[in-house]
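Two records follow; treat each independently.
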Amino acid sequence: MLSWNMVWLRALKGSAVLALPALLMSCGGGTSSAPGVSGACDFTISSQPQALTAAEVETILAQGAQAANQIGAKATIAVVDRVGNVLALYKMTGAGATISIRSGKVEGSVPKGLDGLSGVVPSEAAAIAKAITGAYLSSSGNAFSTRTASFIVQEHFPVGVDNMPGGPLFGVQFSQLPCGDLVTRGAGIGGGPKRSPLGLSADPGGFPLYKNGRVVGGVGVMADGIYGLDESSNPGAVDLDERLAQSALKGFDAPACIRAERITAGGISLPFSKSDDRVIAVTAKSLSDSTVSALGARVSFDQYYSAPAILAGTAFGDAGSGFVPDASSFTAGSGYVLVNPANRANRYPVSAATAPVVPGAGSTGSTPAPLAKGEVQEILAQALGVANQARAQIRSPLGSPAQVTISVVDTAGNVLGLVRTPDAPVFGTDVSLQKARTALFFSSPQAATALTALPPVSYFDSNAKAGTPFNISQYLTDPQRGARSFFNNPAVFSDGVAFSARAIGNIARPYFPDGIAGYPQGPLSKAIADWSPFNTGLQLDLTYTGLVTAILAPTTASTNCTGLTGVNNGIQIFPGGVPVYRGNTLIGGLGVSGDGVDQDDMIAFLGLARAGKALNTGVANAPASRRSDTVTAQGLGLRYVQCPQAPFNNSVEQNVCEGI
């Protein structure tokens, strides 16, 4: 069997990837090419929770409006707090009412996913999504923008370099969806994480906001009318939205040493902004300033913001934010939990499974017991312990511990417990649950039946008119590229094979093997001619109807995006999720998200293994003989998990996942 690395090496011979050393930078050291970005991580992080005041929110709006006016632009500007509460939404007179979703990768008049949807999506939705993305992807150890997001969700990483695999967070754009069951909703201040009207954004023009070293929110701007992405990693024309957003955040800039260009993934530094030398000088501090008073007004957006009030943000870590230090089960590991702000009640307290265990293919004898409360507690605690020990990938300075969210679900996808480290990016909250449910669902012997029972999907055109319907079952049954043909196995997703989130990601890319041009797509992906970050394949199609309904009619949004039982917030197709077994029987799922994907994999896989050893009740990772890395497809094997090199701080231990 050929290894993935062998195939990559064959394809890479003589390719442009040989120029990669010029792109490499060490995390937290050296200097940056961005003006004014250099030096060690020596900024002070406040020991107290921080929040935006209403006056500060108004200043950001005024600065953005003044900057736009100086260059003749008309902008919609959104400001959110760290957990996604929309604090203000401002629209300049003459700003566009709607946007066009356009990746630049898919052409033609036939609707293809969200790509090409225009004239029906409000510009307010785009501005809010950008602001939420800047807030949710960032922390006190990393500052990521929507340009950063664009760089890590495309078909090649680095962007534009052929024959390299997809971005490390490939698929993350379809998280925080407005139809999910973990995200909260409603205008005004409430506990987060709040939903995003368009999921996470890859369109430049969204940045995090900082006070005293802590993320306090995000700002997003929509002025050019195109909701797209950055197709090139090379320096080029400045993006209008990005230039205005960076001008608006004056005084709330990210600390230089944690900006994305000081963070690496796989040795490759990430982009933050192309507008550092194009920031517009601004002086306005309030919307009553004579330079901006007549330029526009605050506007309402159904279910997200009610004008005219400008709101103060919540302080992350206080009960009002919905994220607080745990006071019971996880204090030893400095765990945080999600709470209802009104009474500080844990939204997802550690619980025993409520769904029955279903015997798998070939099972004999009595059915194993479902997850018990004590077992869930041990799994979460052990995974949290691995996270605290792990060396972070996407944080500065070097040697920082990983910051993640950890979720455990039962066989029906019910959340049995959720815990976070103190500074984990907010996006990982929803994503960790997606990963747990993804690993659970595709490992279930009922997965194929559930997929084939789903109703057809129809993409909307620019007039919100439904196109020709097609069946989700094609991802299984298509005679050329369906999963049954791909694996030469009519029982795929029903035969008891254990699939990790990484393995599902392997077959949800527009090339198989991942990134190798000229190879056909994996069975869960669209072909490269139709693929874009707005048209990924099964991942989008499962949520398409729920997502578009939530965009066009926010009050009618369902809490189940997919129609699949137990997969309410959609699937995720990058690593960090594993199924949980007792013996040979599937009993749950475990998901981890917030750091590098190999770190997420390790925390889930090793954490579950340590819990199984401590419990001695049969709880464990899937038996090695049943894992998806034993499966051959197109002459290649899938990956199950991949643990990082030199994984722990203050330790030289290697190969920590070997033999599990």
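The next record belongs to a different protein.
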Amino acid sequence: MIECLIPLMLSTTPVPIPPDARIEPSVTIEHGITRVDPYAWIRQKELPEVIALIEAENAYADAMTPGLQGLRDQLYGEYMGRIVEDDEEVPWASADGWTYRSRTMQGEDYPIVERRIDDKWEVVLDPNALSKAGDHEFFNITNWEVSPSGRYLAWLQDTSGYEHCTLRIRDLETGEDLVDQLENVGSFSLAWLDDAHVFYTRIDDANRPHQVWRHELSTDIATDGLVWQEDDERFWVGVDRFRDGAGVVVSLGSQTTGESLFIPVDTPAAQPVSVLGRVDGVEYDVDHVPGAFVVRINDAGKNFRVIELAQDGEGDIREVVAHDPEVYVTGISAFADALVLSERRGGYTALEVIDRSTGQGRVVPLPEQVSTVGLGGNRVFDSDTVRVRYQSPVSPVSTVDLSLGDLEWTVLKHKEVPNWDSSKYTVRRVEVEARDGTPIPVSLVTRANVEPDGSNPMLLYGYGSYGSSMNPRFSSTRPSLIDRGVVYAIAHVRGGGEMGRHWYEEGKFKNKRNTFTDFIDVRDGLVERGWANPERIAIEGGSAGGLLIGAVLNMRPDMCTVAHAQVPFVDVMNTMLDPTIPLTVGEYEEWGNPNEVDFYKYMLSYSPYDNVGPKDYPAILVTAGLNDPRVHYWEPTKWTQRLRDYNTSDNPVVLRTNMGAGHGGASGRYGRLKEIAWEDAFLLDRLGLSGDKPS
């Protein structure tokens, strides 16, 4: 009898045991309130024990999901089946006389940039070659700009994910890289004033872009000129070149206040001059037309108005577009004969064209209501058309030329998506009433034959911070979930900007809990209407959306079967009480300043890490980046440990960290698709769909 049992015993696969980090309590007292952090030591990245813990977590994640490799491979194959590997963007004209394009090649991770004047395309920038030459696991071109004549190329490259960039410059006439190479440069802003002067930003110890510098070609970088230093830690700096070539603009912004500084093209060494000064609580940004600034400003209302003032400061300010409580102006782009306003109307993106000679405004009609429209790269000021990008959850990206005269809509390219049939899908917008009576918009994407009969699995996505809107976009990966019967829902909760500026303000500071209760109420409302089976719900959010996920799991752990928190901001108190951490001081204008007792208590009431307790948590997947400068690795790592300490269910808490990436995950397109396949397989398995084939 014993001999018969031995083969059975040997074939039994033991349940993997999750890593169990040591507890070393760290006690802090703020405002008379004592907090105990058992895992504060995990913040010490230099400790070998920390890296060993994260690697053990990755091993545990793999050990917990060995049977999902086939599904991951299948999903990855489906994703690849919906992209054209050899593809190119519609070429665009630049003011330097060249025509540019971006294209991808089979087997290569990154798009290359090419240009032509005649018929022959020449390579301007090849990130694939640069990445291979440096043997970089992570590689990201965060910005690139060509000088006004087209002679020189400057670009910013990040090789860690930590958003510390190298600025490199190339002579496109000779193909030679100049000796000018600057390290530890800010990761996004870059502007040529003329062919001799390029402007860039530098970062402080908290990873905040706080300085703008000017570099003159063929000079020692040690002689670069400091253009502006911003000492108010709430503000970030940026720099850009006006489309009409008048000069560069230095943008200074916090969460609640803005300022713009101007440097004319004919005086590169001049001190920048403020366009409208700085008034606490007033935000503005500017574009330029010959002799005048065009300004988007919220001095007369939350949703912004548009004004024009002379560059020399003479004369009166002229109102171009009055404030409208129903229309949220989110951006302005100036051209020779027209202004193009980016807007939100009724919760949807919109474009409005303002004739500069008559002041008449016309809203651009769109093919679908539940959609997303925005300006593309428009480099030519004196143009009678603008490049537009349009998409919806069922309509792949279209590249369009929009006539500024008659609003004629000329589609230049529908992005090819193999194996895609839009007629098989339906997108709709519904509203769910929140507990305070506020209607919350929800975008739903389903198969066309799905009915609200109470049987559907659902993936509910949310964000709800910084006034950022979760626009309904096309995804080449989501159909793999929807084809398996999943209802994909985006909850446009307060804290975002979908319904206007007030929507943001109703979900920040001491209104932050609205974000979380809106999400819960949307979930419950969709269940009541039959759109979701309450036993088959997944929830997902990233970064500040990860805060949303963490908060609602503490408030309502029964609201879902599985949760995915991507690079989640969950250790709110420890992060916001440490001004040395990137983003912290500037974030006081988003969450509140915890050095003030009222804000401290309010933030403590929802901080996911501080409110973990003995509860039956659902299965939870946490994903992170070791080099993330925005949400540091230790937040999701500590949270994972604490969830396991208190979880009273048998559901697993799984942490998966990319050891060579930052906030956005893998940099290459193939690596990123593999990450998504891993994550989606986990969700599908927990929804009971791991064995289902797409229909």
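Discussion point: The longest helix spans residues 669-686. How would you locate this feature using only the token line?
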